[in-house]
Task: inverse folding
């Protein structure tokens, strides 16, 4: 399986949500959800849940590998950067910072 490729910026900027990025990635792949789920190593039901609720952080790269596009990873990185630039933090950012301190990753 070839390495996933970055999506064009125009595609990235047209995604209004992570769900958009997930659905576009699936469409770009030309694979069924069942085929993508098998490549990731999850059930089709689990993948359907990811479409509705978002991909767990630890599975984003596997999803990108399965679909052949880094669109979801790009989308998440872009929105993280936008939150940081605006000074707006979401609960997930806050929890991540606390966990990093607990694991000794932040001085």
Result:
């Amino acid at each position: 399986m070839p390495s996933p490729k970055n999506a064009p910026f125009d595609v990235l900027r047209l995604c209004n949500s992570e769900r958009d990025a997930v659905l576009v990635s699936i469409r770009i792949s030309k694979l069924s959800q069942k085929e993508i789920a098998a490549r990731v190593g999850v059930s089709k039901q689990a993948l359907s849940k990811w479409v509705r609720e978002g991909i767990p952080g630890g599975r984003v790269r596997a999803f990108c590998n399965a679909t052949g596009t880094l669109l979801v990873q790009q989308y998440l990185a872009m929105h993280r950067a936008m939150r940081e630039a605006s000074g707006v933090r979401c609960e997930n950012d806050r929890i991540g910072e606390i966990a990093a301190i607990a694991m000794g990753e932040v001085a």
Q: What stands out?
A: The mean pLDDT is 91. The first helix runs from residue 9 to 14. Residues 38 and 44 are 8 Å apart (CA to CA). The radius of gyration is 15 Å.
